[in-house]
């Protein structure tokens, strides 16, 4: 029997022996049998009995260390030091020793290092020790979480972005794509997935949502509208376009608190499973153990193309849904669990779903040059004879090559409009190369301007900045900066401002740099009376109050 189980039996065994002693039925045979059962000596059992007769609390935990009033316990000061030193008990002991030595008169010596270790192990839970050493995330690993009951299908979905730790060739460059997917919490089925070569956006969420809701080929049989979707405060999931699409589809969005991945454990488990079950075996896996001190990618390693990677990921998603048997489903595949659920599904036509997941850009007037949108012209063959009507524009985010046009009055779909005078692929590649070169130059210039060198110090002294300039170099750089600063080149006093009217209350500091204008007579009051004239027949000069205002 394990030692922990034997320790748990000590208390009931000692209590039984005490009851036999009180009944005057206790014999040496009873003690011998109890010692053999607990794997201790007979003398140890007699000692437990004696301690239990002196103190009733000793009968609950026989053999435990006696608790005295002067036993050291963890104090708030020790807890703060543990948090400061990241759980390093030896560092905490050195700090306590140094503080005790600095006190006057000298305080009582701190506990020994073994005593401190025992107190921390006894008074702090594993979660508290992990939290003081590694923070809340480390402490959460020792918590107990309740499992949500599994309702009917499409009751709750969860969605998330995850960056694949696999390098994929995109336009000749290695990139790590992002995966956006929706999963059903009841059947563990992946209802929709979208792959983005670069950083995901609201367009990625809308594309994955369309593939999740539609049940026709090649998306089915999973799909339909869910009742609720859990998100983790990602700005893409809470964008105006995505939330508007969920509102139109009558789907409730549950915005979970930040840094709480355990509240959407289904999709987080999927993020971990896809790496260990699929991505780790692909070429270009970024977390593959490498020989040597530095992790590097072999030069002769052939990466997957983006199209090939997407095809393999979709095949793995199909395997997950139809062949994999997650343990929560008790031997069923997600497809079998989905088909065994009789809950009716809410379907949306593909055309309506496409409209709901587009971003609204307001109304425009269709002119003879087409539709002007974002300083570009969009045209379509259906526009012939339609110039002058009011239309409403909807578009997929970041898809600048095409917009969808609807009648502004009736909402009837008119047709798509493509970008006029669209640049060729060669021109686009040239523009991308020029932008990349400009970004590299700018990054290099910024790093050079912010790089400051200091002298190495071997003793405590003020930092010494390095980098000497001659007088000529300093003046030349100052002149160059002055020529590029528009604020210094401005000459606001070149043409003085005209003087304000005489009846304005103007501070003397603003009235001084103005030029006097021609005399103009203004009404003096609300009753239309003119301002009083001076001796020469002109308007009296304004007087200045003590606060600097003229009147």
Automatic annotation (TrEMBL):
Identify the species of origin: Streptomyces olivaceus
Cite the InterPro entries for this sequence.
Integrase_cat-core, RNaseH-like_sf, RNaseH_sf, Transposase-like_Mu_C
Signal sequence annotation: none
Organism lineage reads as:
Bacteria, Bacillati, Actinomycetota, Actinomycetes, Kitasatosporales
Integrase catalytic domain segment(s): 147-342
Question: According to the lineage, what is the superkingdom?
Answer: Bacteria
Q: Where is this region: Disordered?
A: 498-551
- What SUPFAM superfamilies has UniProt attached to this entry? Ribonuclease H-like (SSF53098)
- PROSITE patterns xref list: INTEGRASE
Q: What is this protein called?
A: DDE-type integrase/transposase/recombinase
One Pfam entry for this protein is: Mu-transpos_C
